[in-house]
Amino acid sequence: MFQANETEIMIELYFWTTPNGMKPLIMLEETGLDHVIRPVNISKGEHFTESFKHISPNQKIPAIIDYEPAGGNAPISLFESGAILHYLAEKSASLLPRSAAGRADALQWLYWQMAGLGPTLGQFMHFSVYASESVPYAQGRFSLEKERLYQVLNQQLAEREFIAADYSIADIAAYPWIRRLERQGCHLESLCNLKRWYQNISDRPAVERAYQRADEINTTPAITANSRTYLVNPAPAA
Ligand SMILES: N[C@@H](CCC(=O)N[C@@H](CS)C(=O)NCC(=O)O)C(=O)O
Known about the structure:
The protein is α+β, with helices and mostly antiparallel strands. The protein contains nine helices and four strands, in the order E-H-E-H-E-E-H-H-H-H-H-H-H.
């Protein structure tokens, strides 16, 4: 599955069609950086291989290898979607404001997504969809926090078009999770600023291309008994 870079492609993206996987794929489509997708089907446990562990020590997607880093240095391997977005923004000098204040603003919202929105929605989905037993306390806790975070984002978008001053990696980090909002039992009708932002980003050609490519890679995105096995159980101990 993990080949040497024989194709002279700049960046390899280790990817599956989940919200965290979509972040770097959207970024690569937006920036036009030369890349190839290496699918890692987490529903089949492909992220638990030794070869993938070398690329992503946390054994989760996404990860990238940049074979052409700045300065002609040795290839750089990176995991964590926020770190990847930040790296690609620096590499392409795009989608991250140049001013210190603008940069700090976009990065705080990137970290908000990484530390708050993403993990909360992940835990909410786990306890409401994947868990083999019903845990009402956990369901209630993550549901309330999810609703609160939606309100925070809706409020942030009340007087601005994008999360930071311009379209940036902060938007790219949040969008794939909001795209699953209806699956999370929430409706955009009650969050009008979020709805406008969501529609605006959905209409971007790069975002459309990214989701088209994802659909071609994963033709069975529904949860099956087999995929549930890998998604509920942690990796076997090393
Ligand atoms: N904080 C990490 C989270 C990565 C993550 O949770 N990836 C999920 C897919 S969205 C995964 O690989 N799950 C497989 C597993 O947990 O076994 C990031 O943003 O990259």
